[in-house]
Amino acid sequence: MKKRVKAWISVVLALAVLLLSLEWANRIFTPKQHRSGSTWGNFLQEPRDSIDVMFFGSSVVYCGVAPAAFWETSGLTAYVNAGPEQTLAITLAYIQQSLKTQSPGVIFVECSGLGFERYQKFTKTNIGQMPWGKARIQATFHAAEPEAVKGLLFPLFFYHDRWPELTEEDFRGYNADALAGFTWMGEYTSGDLTCESLNVTEEKWQMNIESLTQIYELCRREGIELVLFRTPVERLSTPDWERLCRIMGGLDGVTMLDCLADADKIGADVSTEKYDALHFNGAGAKKFSNYLGRWTVEHLQIQPQPGQDAALWLNRLNFLNELLRTPMRERKQAS
């Protein structure tokens, strides 16, 4: 009997060592993500329950919302947990996971995802950077291409060939992000900045409104105010936005924000403060974020988390302003 118990203990210990080794290897081989969305490693360095407002969505969010500038005009701490071409199904998973460590009073969701396909191009990054847990597993099976599932469950399938290019950076942990999930764009584009609207087919609409409804239900359960917003470009067309307002705008705990209609209040100069037709550069993002901060104070009932680290946020604002002192370079448009 004792021999059998010892044998089982040995098996359990061996399995534990194997799992720990795999987790270590996954962490080392998976590329670090410090900008351009899906910056989970940085997000998890934020003190627990220290964020008042969270922003989710696609690249227009992580290139457009600078939390330090939002704090400057609202006094509210914020974080951007967006991802490139983030589908609403993945946004749901991001919100679920974010609520494991933060308890925001308000969540902003950017709604161009209504026009996205079931699978966009960046599933590997958007889900693969998430911490392990229920939200990641569910997203892997419900929001990822079938051919990506194996690599998302076992990242070494994706990244085992990175061995020759590993650097000291791969062995380090993450630090808190001075830009709180925002990606600084230091160039501007002149010329035609017309943004084409997404084609929101009925199939896309039904699929994505289901995810948006689940996001709403989660926010209601957690007592979180949900703001659905459109950025100051017509990527989500006006008819589609108006349809969304009719469906979601009358629900308790939902506020609709059309930043395109408020473009004059933002005050960004499109000749020097846009990175391209879709995204702000750093200067435009500061103005947009200041506007969002003012709007939040004027329209929502939310108080800052107790014990806010004002020194941290002042340092973040100073860092952002230091970046702004660097002249913007003109970005040549692709021919």
> Main beta sheet, described?
5 strands, parallel
How many β-strands, per DSSP? Answer: 7
Helix content: 40-55%
| Whole-number mean pLDDT | 90
Distance between the termini: 76 Å
Q: Outline, from the CA principal axes? A: globular
Strand content: 5-15%
Task: Output the keywords.
single chain, alpha/beta, 335 residues, 7 strands, two-stranded parallel sheet, 44% helix
Secondary structure topology:
Layout: H1 2-29, H2 40-43, E1 53-56, H3 59-62, H4 67-74, E2 78-80, H5 88-98, E3 106-110, H6 123-128, H7 134-142, H8 149-153, H9 156-159, E4 187-188, H10 202-222, E5 225-230, H11 238-248, E6 254-258, H12 263-266, H13 282-299, H14 310-324, E7 329-330
Parallel strand pairs: 1-2, 1-3, 3-5, 4-7, 5-6
Helix pairs in contact: 4-13, 4-14, 5-7, 5-10
Give a brief description.
The chain has 14 helices and seven strands.
Explain what you see.
Helix 4 (67-74) runs parallel beside helix 13 (282-299), helix 4 (67-74) crosses helix 14 and helix 5 runs antiparallel to helix 7 (134-142). It is globular and about 80 Å long. The chain has helices at 2-29, 40-43, 59-62, 67-74, 88-98, 123-128, 134-142, 149-153, 156-159, 202-222, 238-248, 263-266, 282-299, 310-324; strands at 53-56, 78-80, 106-110, 187-188, 225-230, 254-258, 329-330. The mean pLDDT is 90. With 335 residues, it is an alpha/beta fold. The strands form two sheets. It has a five-stranded parallel β-sheet with strand order 2-1-3-5-6, sandwiched between helices. The protein has a two-stranded parallel ribbon with strand order 4-7. The protein is built from 14 helices and seven strands. The chain starts with a helix and ends in a 5-residue tail after the last strand.
